[in-house]
From TrEMBL, chain A:
GO terms for cellular component: GPI-anchor transamidase complex. It comes from the Eukaryota. This is Phosphatidylinositol glycan anchor biosynthesis, class T. InterPro entries: PIG-T. Transmembrane segments: none annotated. It comes from Dicentrarchus labrax (European seabass). One of its GO terms (biological process) is attachment of GPI anchor to protein. PANTHER family: GPI TRANSAMIDASE COMPONENT PIG-T, GPI TRANSAMIDASE COMPONENT PIG-T-RELATED.
UniProtKB/TrEMBL annotation, chain B:
The keyword Cell inner membrane does not apply. This is Phosphatidylinositol glycan anchor biosynthesis, class S. It comes from Dicentrarchus labrax (European seabass). It is a multi-pass membrane protein. The chain crosses the membrane at residues 16-34, 501-523.
Amino acid sequence: FDTSAPETVDPSSVPQPKDDFQEELVIRPLHSGDIYASFQFRTVWETDFMRGNKVSHYRLFPKSLGQVISKFSVRELHISFTQGYWRTMQWGQPFQPSPPGAELWVWFQDSAECKVYAAGCVDGTWKELTNVLSGIFCASLNFIDSTNTVQPSASFKPLGIGNETDHRFLRYATLPREIVCTENLTPWKKLLPCGSKAGLAVLLKSEKLFHSSFHSQAVHIRPVCQDWQCKTTSWELRQTLNVVFDLHNSAQGKREWSLFKMFSRTLTEACPLASSSKIYIDITDNPQGEQFEVSPATPLLSQAVVLGDRRTFSVYDLTQQITFGTVRSLNLLIRWKSSEGDMLRPLLHAERYVAGYGLQTGEIHTLMYNNHPYRSFPVLLLDSVPWYLRLYIHTLTVTSKGKDNKPSYIHYQPSKDRLRPHLLEMLVQLPPNSVTEVTVQFERALLKWTEYTPDPNHGFYVGSSVISSLVPSIVAMDTNSTRERPLFSSFFPCKEESSYFVRVYTEPLLVNLPTPDFSMPYNVICLTCTVVAVGYGSLYNLLTRSFQIEEPSPGLAKRIANIIRKMRGVPPL
Amino acid sequence: MLTASCCYTDRRRGQLAALSIAAVVIIVGVPLWWRTTETYRAWLPVNQINELANLQLQLSADVEVVFARGTVTPEQQKKVPTQVVISLCLFCSSPLEADLSLHTLSESPCGSLVVYVIPESSTLLPEDVDVYIGQRRTALLRIGAQMRVGRTLEQLLAHLEPRIKQVLQVMSFSHTDITAALSDRVRLSPGNKESIADSMRAFKSSPGYEITFSLLNPDPKSHRVHWDIEGAVQTYIQPLLTKLAPLANFSIDSQTLYYAMLGVNPRYDSSRSAYTLNSDSLAHVINPVEARLGSNAASSNPVLNFLLYVPDAHHSPLHIHDHKKQEVLSNAFHSPRWGGIMVYNVNGFYGPEAVFPVDININMAKVMGVFLAQLRLLLGVQSSAPPPGFLVAPCSSTGLADWELDRLMWSRTVENVATATTTITSLAQLLDQIGNIVINDNIAQQVSSAVTSLQLAVAELEAGNLGFALQYSKEAILASERAFFDPSLLHLLYFPDDQKFAIYIPLFLPMCVPILLSLLKIVSEARQKRRERQAKKD
């Protein structure tokens, strides 16, 4: 080695990295005895993907996603894969809501080449993007096409900076049928700088994560402000993973949870690349430790305003060696003392079902509950219904407390067969302490026989309705988006102190369509051909045969006599 | 008697009806069935494709020979044309045909050469050097001693020709280059394994390449490694790629991968107090790393990977050993058509008392020197040893002489032409063999444009316009690949025949059998009648 080489250890000459990585885990014991764990990994990088230069040098930010952003001029990308349905009434609001199956929504950059023919250009990019993402995440996102893509006009506003709200640059699609499993988790873990080798990500073992009631993993990319004045912007990649472990399934009914029991791993170190690595345990309902007991105890407490509520958390800082204690391993233990206590009912929740009988018509019912005792608030309802359920939009009724509730805004885009789905968006005011019911009738279309799925009698999925709302908050929300806050409380930007943003997804629907017998085409061919052949045959016979009168054949006695006469050599009768 | 004639007319009518139904079925039904069930097959230039299949390549390079003062006597000067152009045909039946023709050139364009003939007494070149190859497209040739006196012009040219040929082989193309480029089509003669290895090392010709530099840091707890890759790429790699821009598009990116392990456990060598990687185990190093590298999501061009591996603190220093158990000086190796790996030991830069993690700045000059050499190899810039008596000018700052670029362009053009013809001919063969494949108009259009570009490329090669030839060959490759991989070709590819019969038989069998039977009956009756008439005559 030549000693003149500048490999010296000199911290002052080391350039300050422009990227930053944080990780955290929030554990919330649920009243049902289940446990909710939410992982958040955030990479922030002060860079500009949209500049013309082609050279890109990645450190913490994953290269594959960076290339996607710059190639497809993406301004915001949100993708989630969810297995199971989040039960709002049992578990409260999740930190990041997501519908069952796969959901993808993307805001595209208003780029120069897409200015003139915006719609067609963005559609082409969207198609290519879904194909690339399906390769990155090993998911069937390539099944996203024009028949399940919509452009919501109001429900999905950009979560990052930028005030572009022209919904021609927005695409939203869900695949409610998508099944999430290990092959989606592995590429997701690969995007983390430490992979699954160190830090909180060592807990992400698929054999435990998928043995749960609810599993949701997501990737959110958006531009964010670096400082209060928003002088510099940077790109934020937020990877989240939410999982709910079932009391009976994973804990054999014992109200006692530990990291090892949940993930079959314990923690020994933080990711060395992370600037912060923390575990939060929600102890709001347990101020004096009468509900459950957490060990090892931590002196660190933190308060955060999340989802309109001020909550208290015990904090374990993994970057401090003392957290791991003498055994050099952290295995958090939560042991319940009593199974009593009531959960605060979530202020907003919704459900949906399909009604009616027979295979011709039906009715979709969406119920939205406002549990606030005295405040009414508006909600935006987004429904994207496939074209094969033909909505009768004149039958749309919105009723609350038995009275007609006229939506103040309706955006309806009718479907085109095999081209695009129905899009129904409306702004409905929910009266306090009420149930609002939205019903619309539909007719089931007959599909072409190649359009049926391999198991058509299972039914066809209709994606969740999305309900977005600003719900009145009990406590003042934090509107400073750049202040240091726990990651889980800083996902949705907050514009005013008095309300907070909530998105609620309903159940996806499973609708039976009239399903033919699939040997039918061949049967039809055979039957038609036979009918044609019978008709043709008789016609042909009539046309070509010549008919002549024939002598009636001689009787039996005469024939026998003739045979005898023949034998005797006498001429026959 | 009356009844008989009635029967006869009745029969006659029946026969006529049968005949007319058969006629209608044949005249209307069969064409209708044919037209409604045929697959659409656009017209393809099959003849031209077949012509391309037995490809005759003729490469010619312009060589300008300039005689310096003192090499030609004044009377010869009168006879010598101002410029001499030698065209070489490598692919004709006779191995080489030299052709002298006249040409005027102001400056040397892409693919051409200028040879300056200098007198033997010139002190420009060192004693034992006969030919000097410059950085541009020029060479200096020292005239032989035996040519000093009593020479005629013919003798002089006859003396120069083999040497100019030699210069051309070094600076433009040699037979081995071209056969290597054509390795897909030409069976290599056994014995030149070296050239096979050379041709296998370089990436296949492609319209674009992605170059990815990855810093592998398996131990971020101990080493906080910093590399100024952006500056290094600007300084070392970009000049070369700018030079290579006519050949292909290059895009560069870099990434840092943490906790990326090699696939083999290095062995501890106590005599050297270092860890060693044997050359045999290098083959297993790449696989586990490759899973982490990730493919480029945004393009489908081939990726050249360059990995800089910083061994973790417990396995340092790490050295690569060659077959003779000697340390490899550069501590790097490359994998053909994949990329290169360099091991960069950092344990010497901190003492045992250092506090982890240690900040380490990587010396990019050292790293990029290795990667640049590997990049040249992988791109196919050949640096075979020049023949004795040749002196090659040292590399310029761009890392690539003009004639080296030309050499690369020659072989790439030939390779492109070969690949595109293979693609087009195999597509034509496939379409010819499988009648079910639909050929849409856009595929036909791609095929014809590929064929046109190929013909143009071959013509330009023949004319010696290297730049245009390369351009056309690239277009040919793009068009042929687009046609070959078009998804519309697959739509009806696997439509089985038994299903076709299953659909046709219920309709065709009951319809055709009566027609056939009645036709047979008519024929047999007609024959019988003729026989009766014959018998009556007799």
